[in-house]
Structures are given as C-alpha cells and as structure tokens.
C-alpha cells in the first residue's frame, strides 16, 4: 500500500491512499480518522495582556497628564465617562466555540491563569477639567501551565486544550455510482461518534460529537478523494464555580471642572466654533500643539476669548426678531419659531429657523424638558441635537447633553459634569438622538 498523503485545496481535504481490493473499506475508514479535519486540536487563543500598561499606571500614580503619550499607550479596560471603546479587557477565545465572556473570565481566575490589577487615576490638563478614570488590567499569570506551553505569556499565544478521540462508527456504506467523465466510481459514506479529551483542568466536554464523511475512489489515479467532512463538536463546560466577577471599579472624586471659556469671532457661527474646537482638541490629544493648550490653538485661529458668565447659554444654530430679551445676557435675541418664543445668540439668528424644539410651549415660550434638532437647509438629517431643560425660552445651565456631526461625519457626544466630548457610533446613540440613525 502506498504511503498516505494529505493536502487541502479549495476548502476540501483530499485523502490519497493506495488501492487494495480486499481492504479498501478498512483503509479509507482508518485514513479518515487521520485527516486534519479530525485531528486538529481545540485551541485556547491568548492575546497580549495588560502587564506593560499596569507597569505604566503603577509608575504614574494617582494622576496622568491627558497630553502625556502614556495615556494613549494604556491598553487596559477603561471605566468612567467617555472611556475609549475597545481600550482593553479579556483577550481570550476558544477556537470553534462561542463562550460567555463572564464564564471564561471566572474559569481563568479560578485556575490562576489570570490576575486583575485595578487603578483609579485622574486625567489632568484636559480641555474639560480633571476627569476621573478607572483602569482594569488583566495580566496573564506566570508559572502556570499556560505560561509553560506558551513561553512569554504576556505577548500571547495559543494552547491546545482538547483533542478528538474516535468512539464508533454509527453508519457506513460502500457503493458505486456514475460520475461524469469517470464512469462508475466506488464511494464510501459514513457517520461516527467521537469524544473530546480535555488537556487542561476545569474543562470538560460532557457529550459526544458526531461527524459525517464521504469519499470516492478516482479511477484515473487510484486515489481516494474526500468530498465532505462535516463535524459537530460537543458543548464545552468551563468550571467557574465558587468564583465571582470583580466589583465595578471605583472612580476617584474630582472637584467640579472650571467653566469653559466662551469663544467668538466676527462673521463666524456656532458650527464654525465647534469645528475649530474639535480640530484643536484632537491636536492636543495627538500631541501636535508643541507646548500650547487647545485654547492657544483657538486664539491662533482668530477666535477671541471671553471669560464665562455665571450662567452660560449654548449658541443655537429666519424668524422674526421680536425684541432684545429680558435676560441676564445682553447678547441674546428673542425670536419666534413655529409660534413659540426662544432666546438665541444674535450670531445664530439666521440659522435658528432650522432648529425644531420637541417639547412644550408654555405661556408662548419653549419650556420644560425637550430636544432641539437643528438641520442644514434642505436636509432631513440633523447636524446637531441638544437635550435639556428650558425655562422661558432658554436652556438652563448644566442641563445640556448634545450629539453633533463633525465635518468628517463623526458623531460627537457631549457632556456630563466632569467630562468632555467623545466620539460615538450610530449604535451607541442615546434614544433621544436616534434621528441621526435615519
């Protein structure tokens, strides 16, 4: 009999063996169990861990300068407002299985494959004041079976955690069938059961798996060709008994942030200001300002800075001008939109007709909780949505949340006290801003 050979082409495994009229069935049955489709192991895939980030955090202590390159290099899971999505966390998976992340975490913890290091810090020198942030670093443990098999476990790798073992044939059939260009060919078809043997503690595969196979003998070269191999692995069980998930991270307390400065520029509107603030803010994040602050960046772009008043009001994005407002701020004008009065910055009067208030109108003024959506002329999709509470036509201080579209199409959410703007996706939109998803 010829030596068995295996190769893979176009997703099918080809099995080649010599032909012996008396024992061909036994040969093909044995050879099927030697194909990579069956012999490939169940693999635990380990990604890089948070050990280096934990060292950075430990060295920095209780605070990190927001503009420090260390901040960008932290790859641990973040907690706190505007935390970066996908910044870190459990970096494990099992090939061929979709495993609950909490169960996987508890199994790894129970058998000391991982350990957790938590850090609570304050981000300083941000455009939005000091921001509390929590980090949870998951570190792959040294001195474990995983470390022995992988080597540098902190860099990641893979470990075999289960191998398939044949149990019995549950069906098999040998027959001939016509095949185009080859005449009648010999065919083997069958099904069999198998088990998976666990290779690490705390793992089990309680039931049996099953597979169905089919191969034919090619009369042109006397080789068997595998045309299908379909397997169904049994479920996996990870022992996570007696282990609880770690508690939520506690964030450090920070004093209320200082009020933001007010920028104004002749001939420019609120959209221009927001665009330049985004550009300067990202330049600060990326370390491109060379010792300047984001406020210096705005001044370089021609914006003038006015200290914030005790009660700031947002600049809203052409209705009739009624009168100067009976308001504490002298640069607001009273306008009428859809029959209801509101106060807006004088620089925004031309655009406010395209801002629709979805809330109550009390005594002729927009009032109470509501949402205000602003549209470009002719557009049915808003460029900004603000949620807040109005009192006699004005948004009240500290009540605002907003979502706006940057020039590059990114969605920016802002803000809760003690935090700053953050990029969000359509799937992450709050319910009141779902209009952006239309």
Element layout with pairings:
Blueprint: E1 5-9, E2 12-16, H1 24-32, H2 36-39, E3 42-46, H3 51-60, E4 63-65, H4 69-72, E5 77-79, E6 92-94, H5 101-110, E7 114-124, E8 131-140, H6 145-150, E9 157-179, E10 183-198, E11 203-204, E12 209-218, E13 223-232, E14 237-238, E15 262-264, H7 270-285, H8 294-300, E16 304-306, E17 321-323, E18 332-337, E19 340-345, E20 355-362, E21 365-375, E22 382-391, E23 394-395, E24 401-405, E25 411-414, E26 422-424
Parallel strand pairs: 4-7
Antiparallel strand pairs: 1-2, 3-6, 3-9, 5-8, 7-8, 9-10, 10-12, 11-14, 12-13, 15-16, 17-18, 18-19, 20-21, 21-22, 22-23, 22-24, 24-25, 25-26
Helix pairs in contact: 7-8
Model description:
The chain is α+β, with helices and mostly antiparallel strands and 438 residues long. It folds into 2 domains: 1-257, no CATH class; 309-437, no CATH class. The chain is 15% helix and 39% strand. It contains 8 helices and 26 strands. The strands form 7 sheets. Strands 20, 21, 22, 23, 24, 25 and 26 form a 7-stranded antiparallel beta sheet that branches. Strands 6-3-9-10-12-13 form a 6-stranded antiparallel beta sheet. β21 and β22 form a beta hairpin. Residues 1-22 and 307-330 have low confidence and may be disordered.
Assembly context of the chains: single chain
Give the terminus-to-terminus CA distance: 67 Å
Portion of residues within helices: 10-25%
**Roughly what is the average pLDDT, rounded to an integer?**
78
β-strand amount: 35-45%
* Whole-number tally of structural domains: 2
Total beta strand runs? 26
The total count of helices amounts to 8
Radius of gyration: 33 Å
* Global morphology: elongated
Give unreliable regions as ranges: 1-22, 307-330
Largest sheet: number of strands, sense, barrel closure: 7 strands, antiparallel
What class do helices, strands and sheet pairing give?
Answer: alpha+beta
